[in-house]
Every structure is written in C-alpha cells, then in structure tokens.
Amino acid sequence: MVLTDTEQHIDFYVDRYELPRKKLLAVPVGALEGATTPDQQDQHSVQNAFSVLFYGSMLPLHGVDVIVAAAAQLRDLPIRFDFIGGGAKQARRLRQLCERLGVTRYTHRAWVPLHELVDTEIPRADLCLGGPFGGTPQGRRVITSKTSQALALGKATVIGAIDEDIGWIDKDNCLLVPQADPDALVAALRWAFAERNALSRIGARGHTLYQQKLSVHAIAQRLCPALR
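User: That's the sequence. What structure does it adopt?
Assistant: Structure tokens below.
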C-alpha cells in the first residue's frame, strides 16, 4: 500500500508511474492536537498591527514570491508579515524580494521549535497563510501541513485552492484564493483586515472542518479499514 495525502496525488501516481489505483490510499497529514483551542486564541486590539504568519521551508510550491508581491500592495495598512523557516538561501531571497518591492513591515526567523509554533506563534497571529500559493504542479495537488495545523488550532487560514473537494468555503471556514495570484491574496487580506472580528468565527468553523476531514480521527477512519 502507498499512502499519499490527496486524491490528486493518487491520480498523479497512477498516471506517472502506472501504479494500480487499488494500492493507493489518500489520508490527511494531520496535525498536533489537544493544544490551544479556538476559544483560547489571543485577541488582539484593533489598534495593534495585524499579524499574518507564514512558516515553512519556502519551497517554490509555497509561493513566497506571491506573498511578498501581495505585501507590496498592502503598505497602506498596518499589516505585518511574520516569516519563519527556510535556510540561508531562502532568507537571502526573501530579503531581496522585500527590498526590491519596498516591503518593510515584515520579520523573518530561520526556525522555531514545533512546540513554540503550536503553543505561541500560531495562536498569537491574527491570520495564518496555509497556502500553497505557488501554482506549481505539486502545489496544485497538496493540502499543506501548515494549513492542517492552523485549522487544528482554530486559526483563520488563507488556503490556496486545489482541484479537490475538501469542504473549503471562502469566508466561512477559511479564506480561499486561487494560486499564483497576488491580487487575489491582496483582496483576501484586505477583507480579513477590515472584517477581523469575523476571523474567530471562521477559525472555529475551520476547526470543525479539520475535525471532520483532516484530524487524527479522520486519518484512523480511512486507514484502519485498509489495514484489516
């Protein structure tokens, strides 16, 4: 049996490697559960900078260039982009992108321990960028682990659309945008800033969807019958 994360990846493996479909099973990647719950999220004053969190290895599928291009169009708003992850090469490229596009309201840290992401960084952000935003072939087949983790914690999350019915509903349980589209990301972030009081509701509904479709329980429901 070969495990993968989406039906899109099953189709890819069948087409590319001619694997028998019956040998493939799509299961969610899951997340760390049982930490901060939606009603424990940090509540920011509307006077504070609106914090948008991205963490990850900054691979092409993540679309960091799309995020920075969107940030350049949001300089009129007090939105701060907090980047975590990537090595020296990715950090240099991020800095160069921001300098070229005039983005100054951002932070970058090479990495933080996973428990800090789960216990502190995600809960205190106003909004998480789950992506993927890159529009690469791989990006159009995945649900990122950062999306699952943010939803598991009940955090409102911007998700890059893929051609698979997961249950995403824009402005209901997530903010859903097409990939490789900075303007769409700008529109989503402007809406989130203007409607920040709606984000806790969106995060709570995203948490419900996570429990139904992406959780450890959902993984067990799909995996256990296949192992019998």
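Helices lie at 7-17, 64-72, 88-101, 114-124, 145-152, 182-194, 199-214, 216-227.
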